Amino acid sequence: MAKKSSPVATPFAAIACLLPLLPVVLWPGTGVLASIALAGLGLLFFRTSRKPTLAMVWKSRVASILFGAAIGAAMAWGIANFVRPLVEGWLGKGVSIGGLDQVAGNPLFFAITLTIALGSAVVEELIFRGYVIGWGAQIFGTKFAPALMLLTTVVFGYAHWEYGPAGAVVTGFAGLVLGTLYLICGRRLLPCISAHMTFNLIGSVALYMA
Fold it and tell me: Helix %, strand %, coil % for the chain, to 5?
């Protein structure tokens, strides 16, 4: 007979699952550090969170990486040529890149920015897709996975408010693509990590070449 989950543990697990979304809403940008800490504590204290959060491979490692890279490249092209111009025209404001304009032609700054961009891609996928959607689907039921995906999409976009309203909307669209990819691949994280890293790589190179 399968062991039933404790009626006390389930609400705590639900809170622990969704809690990392709160800091990035309260403090867009820097709040992600608190989100990392909360997700880390969740993985430490809730053993049931580890398997769904860290489920990586879809079909095979090579297929996961190549499919994700193709999606990331297509996402970068589509956002640069269609989504970003449409959003900027709609809002009447461009995407703010802040101090990232220093990346242009600066190899050292480019290397630092690229390292952060690739690392953040892994961390963000672990939190927004693996931890919240993956573990959340186990807690709330798989039928709630699309709702969790939409929730993380909105929060993911808002978490990048430092790029301005247009940047938040564009990033939210990227989150929608990555969340959809996560669900299509059976809630396996490696394709999303590959896609996100490819997207950030292309964006960083574009900044350097600007």
Answer: 80, 0, 20
- pTM passes above 0.85: yes
Residue 3 belongs to a domain: no
∠ CA 107-30-172, nearest 5°, is: 85
CA distance 80 to 190: 24
Residue 184 structure tokens: 């299509």
Residue 199 lies in a domain: yes
Read off the pLDDT of residues 25-56 as tens digits, 9 standing for 90 and up: 999 988 999 999 999 999 999 999 999 999 99
Tokens of 52: 């769904």
The answer to whether residues 171 and 200 touch, using CB atoms and an 8 Å cutoff, is: no
Q: How many CB atoms lie within 10 A of CB 140?
A: 17
Range of the domain at 197: 9-209
Residue 120 lies in a domain: yes
Q: How far apart are CA 95 and CA 72, in angstroms?
A: 19
DSSP conformation class of 160: T
